[in-house]
Amino acid sequence: MRTLRLVTGHEAPAARLHLLGGFELRVHGATVEIKPAPQRLLAMLALAGTTIQRGFAAGQLWPDASAERAQANLRTTMWRLRHVPCELVHGTKTHIRLGAEVWVDVREGLSDSGDVLRGPRSGTALLADLLPDWYDDWLDTERERIRQLRLAALERDGEVMLEAGHPADGIQLGLRAVALEPLRESAQRLVIRCHLAEGNLIEAVRQYERYAASLRRDLSAEPSPRMAELLGTFRRRAPALPS
User: Fold this and answer.
1) Burial of 137 (0-12, 13-18, 19+ CB in 10 A)
2) Which CATH number is 15-105 given?
3) Of the candidates 183, 224, 188, the residue with the CA atom closest to the CA atom of residue 207
4) Domain locations in the chain?
5) What is the pLDDT of residues 171-225, one digit of tens each?
6) CA distance linking residue 162 with residue 144, whole number of Å
7) CA 243 and chain centroid, separation
8) Dihedral angle at the C-alpha atoms of 19, 25, 26, 32, nearest 10 degrees?
9) Which of 233, 202, 124 is nearest to 169 (CA)?
10) How far apart are CA 130 and CA 144, in angstroms?
11) Any transmembrane segments, and where (predicted)?
């Protein structure tokens, strides 16, 4: 029986699992090729971030199979991972979880996104898409969760840059968020505030007008009063500018 060893921040993890941009598993520095079913089991456990029931995992991974067949597939899949020289999956009779020695890039990105004082790193940590060549239904919610975290991280880092007196960097981070979700008002407000901090009123008005035009065209809506108030008296005097 293997002895579990917790990985501290000063030790290199035995296994590194990459899900952003595509699946890759590296163990002790070497790439390990595994079949699709074990790949999907590892990805599910990594994204769950906690212990899950065997029946739930089996039903998600083999939704078209009977409960008995799905459970048998899960046992076979776990057995196929035993040749890897570290514990990738830890299981009991009823539950399974990712091995304690496995580092996951998604978790690292989410950890960065919670520490905005590190500067504009968290947004870039999550820029790659989650398993872009997979089409499993159970990934839809995870992709949306990461998209929302990516947007929030970019905005938070942009706020840090603005408060630190670097509005140009804030603009770049805000525009990344705008590119991901053009109708997201909080990202648009960040870009406008950064333009105003630089003294570029015309750029701020242009950004506002582009956003307002998109809202009218796509949603038949207007920017919120909070958005309009950003430009103050200048916006009320200035004519509409072409997008």
Assistant:
1) exposed
2) 1.10.10.10
3) 188
4) 15-105, 150-237
5) 999 999 999 999 999 999 999 999 999 999 999 999 999 999 999 999 999 999 9
6) 27
7) 31
8) -160
9) 124
10) 10
11) none
pLDDT at 81: 94
Which residues fall within 8 angstroms of residue 183, CB to CB, at 6 or more apart? 211, 214, 215, 218, 219
Assess contact for 89 and 45: CB atoms under 8 A: yes
188: amino acid identity, one letter: Q
Q: What letter does residue 16 receive in the DSSP assignment? A: E
Confirm whether 15-105 and 150-237 share one CATH topology: no
Say if CB 41 and CB 57 are below 8 A apart. yes
SS3 content of the chain, % helix, strand, coil (to 5): 55, 10, 35
- Does this model's pTM top 0.90? My answer is no
Cα 123 from Cα 135, distance rounded (Å): 24
Place of tokens 């809202």: 215
- Judging by DSSP bridges, how do beta strands 102-104 and 15-18 pair with one another? parallel
150-237: CATH number: 1.25.40.10
The three-class DSSP label of residue 70 is: helix
The amino acid at 18: H
Separation between Cα atoms, residue 117 and residue 3, nearest integer Å: 37
